[in-house]
Specification:
By secondary structure, this protein is α+β, with helices and mostly antiparallel strands. The protein is built from 23 helices and 24 strands.
Length: 740
């Protein structure tokens, strides 16, 4: 069927973008230009090679053909899935629809909505938990009567003393709970019964540690919010004024379509003249997706923020609540994904009629979902960890760790001659996005002329790393460049998160490679020398995390950057422990290389030295990861070897129109609830047996905060089955970096 369907079929989605270009980004694109690496080659380069169930049937499907085929909703610390349930309360949904429609028409005037008022939940002392007899009986069944009584007493004490800090309350230690499923049930019960006012963790003896939660112990009772504070009204001054509202941090829900989180927050910051540091969030989200996440903003009034809904493009905000604390990276349980894989094909489908093919697909998908729920997948770092350009971010990280900072800068400023050629010919007959063409033109200008002002004027704003380096290296005094050879200064000019991304990508590549070797050698067997975490209570402590929410181990002694904060430790199993059956493969962790971690006390530990000492590993020593540049002096971290979804469901659907939206977004549901959703005949899912039907696989899964949905999909689809939609220029084999 034709790939150009936009002229023949009305769009089902009511887009929030107020410009035609944004609508085009979700349209079906022509095939990419030659020279792209396929996903399989990129996986091999990143060390992603093994499968848990290599013998089970896979399938092939197109991933993210439309950005609304990838829905991501955060799972917040309470265990609830976050949804956008209102758009600043009084914002008219019909106005949203009409302004979106108008935004797609050149020269149209958008209707101005009524000035919104935000519904703000008051931050006040929560009522005590009313415990049912059933809940009490369930707690006693899990913990016994005496431990349950102590837990109930702890909750009562926490509720009576909201001003106390978490450390001021005692901790309750349960009896050993050997079965992991039983421990999981115990954690969930504690969270549900006490409404996340108590935290629980597991110690090295598989006993639960129950303690006051950070949120429950730190909130203070606040006065009722004064309704006189309307949009544009008197701003609260000083700490006391904000405490009247409920706290200095406004928490809100951000819904975004095909936008980076920081892209939206930078816009909000410009409107309020606030620096990015005023905003905090718990985890980064994919750009090419519809994502819902929680954001906190320091000293921003809800009414003023709600008013931005009329000007936000590709985003909406709601769910306001003042709190006394900001959000932090890693402060979430995970994410729920709703994923649509389009144009799917299955082994053995050739020669089958449409109904038989549909039935075959249902059987394969059902089996694949059950396998992942039971056996899980190797907890690889996904490809997004390694960047989108031809030079992977881990290659930059290697150069930084080797001390070759000049080479690291040159790699960051590298560009593809194919993108450059497309830029010079105006982008004719190419699918390379205009930003990538402009980037190549700007970097060539810098390379050939050294004119930083001209290069920066050409560079798209989203390439913050390139902009920072060129700005720094191009600085002049009396007409002479002052920083021309200061490579450390150039790298230091990049934001800290972006700098760390390069060296963390190297750690991730090493981890992936070692994980594949661990699986090939031992599979699901627990062997002598495998590592298990000593104290999982640190997962609830104030430890450092990287830009993806991944836990980072703190260095020891004077190298430590976080004072006396707890940090995770792991130890190797003895032969007796490995053979006892006390530990399962789900308990085994592998380290990300650093100077403050233990390595497996077996051949896998030796493989770290072998691989990291190789050419691909950068000729580095895993036991010598300290550097004179303290920021890249890697302390290391631990990551579970295998993972499995907390929830996973799969279905097969038939469709004929490539613009059909097969899963409803939060805005779709709001429109439907308000009665403003428009019927669209082209959006109806086709019945199996239609001769023109294509097959889609629709998956829902819940994963932990450091797990990658693409790696779960890879296990399900097998090698080469997951075809990322090439709507953007990402990977070219022929790559050119700037000359010395």
């Amino acid at each position: 069927m034709s790939t150009d369907t936009t002229a023949d079929h009305p769009r089902k989605r009511i887009r929030l973008d107020n410009d035609a270009a944004a609508s085009e980004s979700n349209a079906i694109q022509p095939p990419p230009v030659p020279g792209w690496e396929d996903d399989y080659e990129k996986e091999v380069r990143a060390g992603i090679t093994a499968f848990v169930s290599p013998g089970t049937p896979g399938l092939a499907g197109v991933f993210k053909q439309r950005y609304s085929d990838f829905l991501v909703n955060e799972i917040v610390s309470s265990g609830d899935v976050l949804h956008l349930t209102d758009i600043a309360d009084q914002t008219s949904l019909s106005t949203v629809r009409e302004s979106s429609k108008a935004g797609a028409e050149a020269g149209s005037k958008t209707e101005q909505p009524v000035k919104p008022k935000a519904t703000v939940e008051k931050s006040e002392k929560p009522p005590p938990v009313e415990m049912s007899e059933e809940d009490l009986a369930q707690l006693q069944e899990i913990f016994g009567e005496s431990t349950t009584a102590a837990i109930v007493k702890l909750h009562k004490t926490v509720h009576q003393h909201p001003d106390k800090k978490r450390k001021d309350f005692e901790k309750i230690t349960s009896e050993e709970i050997e079965d992991k499923a039983d421990r999981t049930k115990a954690h969930q019960t504690i969270r549900r019964v006490f409404q996340s006012r108590l935290d629980s963790s597991t110690n090295e003896n598989n006993a639960l540690i129950i303690s006051a939660s950070l949120s429950a112990a730190s909130r203070q009772s606040k006065a009722d919010w004064q309704q006189k504070r309307e949009a544009g009204g008197n701003q609260s001054k000083g700490r006391l004024g904000w405490e009247e509202l409920g706290g200095e941090y406004l928490h809100f829900t951000l819904y975004k379509e095909n936008k980076d989180t920081m892209e939206v927050l930078n816009y909000i910051g410009r409107m309020f003249k606030l620096a990015p540091k005023h905003f905090q969030f718990s985890g980064t989200k994919d750009r090419r997706a519809v994502a819902v996440q929680r954001i906190s903003a320091y000293r921003v009034q809800a009414e003023r923020l709600a008013a931005l809904n009329k000007s936000l493009k590709g985003a909406k905000i709601g769910g306001f609540k003042y709190e006394t604390y900001p959000l932090a990276l890693g402060q979430l349980q995970g994410n729920e994904f709703n994923i649509t894989l389009r144009d799917c094909h299955f082994p053995g489908e050739d020669g089958l009629d449409e109904q038989a093919r549909f039935d075959l697909a249902k059987g394969i998908v059902t089996k694949a979902v059950e396998n992942i729920k039971k056996d899980g997948f190797i907890n690889y770092f996904g490809l997004q960890r390694f960047g989108t350009l031809s030079i992977s971010t881990d290659e930059v990280g290697v150069k930084m760790l080797q001390g070759d900072l000049k080479a690291a800068v040159q790699l960051i400023l590298g560009y593809s001659p194919i993108a450059l050629a497309a830029g010079k010919n105006g982008g004719l007959t190419t699918t390379i996005p205009i930003d990538d063409r402009k980037r190549a033109l700007a970097l060539e200008e810098w390379e050939t002329s050294g004119n930083s002002k001209k290069a920066l004027n050409m560079m798209p704003r989203k390439y913050s790393g390139e902009i920072a380096i060129i700005t720094f290296l191009g600085q002049r005094r009396n007409g002479v460049k002052t920083n021309e050879q200061d490579w450390k200064g150039a790298l230091s000019s990049i934001s800290r998160n972006l700098r760390l991304m390069y060296i963390h990508a190297y750690q991730s590549m090493v981890w992936n490679t070692v994980a594949a070797r661990r699986w090939e050698r031992f599979g699901t067997n627990v062997v002598e020398g495998d590592l298990v975490v000593v104290d999982t209570a640190a997962k609830n402590s104030l430890v450092d995390v990287d830009e993806s929410g991944e836990l980072i181990i703190q260095p020891e002694g004077e190298d430590r950057a976080a004072g006396d904060a707890d940090f995770i430790r792991a130890r190797p199993l003895t032969k007796e422990e490995a053979e006892s059956g006390k530990h399962s493969i789900w308990d085994i962790v592998l380290p990300q290389p650093g100077f403050d971690v233990n390595y497996p006390a077996n051949e896998i530990g030796e493989f770290y030295k072998e691989f990291m000492g190789s050419e691909k590993g950068g000729g580095l020593d895993p036991h010598n990861m300290r550097r004179t540049w303290r920021e890249i002096s890697l302390s290391g971290g631990y990551r579970n070897f295998l993972s499995r979804p907390n929830l996973m469901e799969g279905d097969v659907r038939s469709y004929t129109n490539d613009t059909e939206q097969l899963v409803k977004t939060d805005v779709d549901l709001l429109l439907e609830k308000s009665g403003e959703a428009q019927a669209n005949p082209s959006s109806e899912v086709t019945m199996a047996g239609d001769s023109d039907a294509l097959l889609a696989v629709v998956l829902k899964m819940q994963l932990g905060s450091s797990q990658y949905a693409t790696m779960a999909l890879r296990e399900m689809l097998k090698a080469g089955g997951l075809k990322s939609y090439k709507a953007e220029f990402k990977e070219f084999k022929d790559f050119r970096g700037p000359t010395a």
